[in-house]
Specification:
The chain is 37% helix and 15% strand.
């Protein structure tokens, strides 16, 4: 972020931070979403702070941008039937807001639990040669929306864990340039070797605040069992 902000200021470029699932993550003791001009956060039910249905937020400390975003989300109007912009209907309903208000009281403790779970995973998996685990930079505080490893024989490991009652997931199985909607660009996997390699090895292990240590140990035990 330091370098991005420096470049943006030099060339008068606006910075939009996509903080979809990174709520309360930090870089150098500063919350993500507070570096640029504007940031977005997702409250999709599966996120760290999730509503009961689709919801989200835009954050900024610029009053003009805040007013414009509110208008765009409300059909481009501030006063009913007075449409200043070609807006969209993107208002968050009161039910979602109330649910989020309740959950907001717990998000920091949930985040600490996610971090503790990640530490347990790290303790048990760090020496395993067949996988790579997430690394956290010393200047960063990770909120672990997901716990994603890179695994050899990923698909076989995924099936083995499923057979042993452990749910895993792929976030995401395809790199963007190889999606069907970009076929017209004629890209191949060799154009993006690192991204493609990662997409073939990523595996999301169970990660949610209610996980108990014995459950995490069971997951790690089965991973070790698979590779031995």
């Amino acid at each position: 972020m330091d370098l991005l902000i420096e470049i943006a200021k030099k060339y008068s470029i606006h910075v939009i931070e996509d903080c979809a699932q990174a709520i309360f993550a930090e870089f150098k003791n500063q919350y993500v979403g507070t570096f640029g001009d504007i940031a977005t956060i997702s409250f999709y039910p599966g996120k760290n702070l999730g509503a009961f249905g689709d919801a989200g937020a835009v954050i900024t400390n610029n009053n003009n941008l805040a007013e414009k975003v509110r208008m765009i989300a409300n059909h481009g109007q501030k006063i009913k039937h007075n449409h200043k912009y070609e807006g969209i209907n993107s208002r968050m309903d009161g039910l979602q807001g109330n649910i989020l208000n309740v959950k907001l009281n717990h998000i920091l403790s949930w985040t600490k639990k996610r971090q503790a779970i990640a530490n347990i995973y790290r303790k048990h998996l760090k020496e395993l040669p067949n996988i790579s685990i997430p690394k956290v930079d010393k200047d960063c505080t990770h909120v672990f929306h997901l716990y994603v490893i890179l695994a050899e024989k990923r698909n076989e490991l995924m099936s083995f864990l499923k057979d042993n009652g452990i749910g895993t997931a792929l976030h995401y199985p395809n790199i963007l340039p190889l999606l069907a909607c970009y076929d017209h660009l004629n890209h191949s996997a060799s154009d993006f070797p690192m991204g493609f390699d990662a997409s073939q090895r990523i595996l999301s292990l169970p990660m949610f605040p209610e996980l108990e240590e014995k459950e995490i140990q069971y997951v790690c035990q089965k991973i070790k069992e698979f590779y031995t």
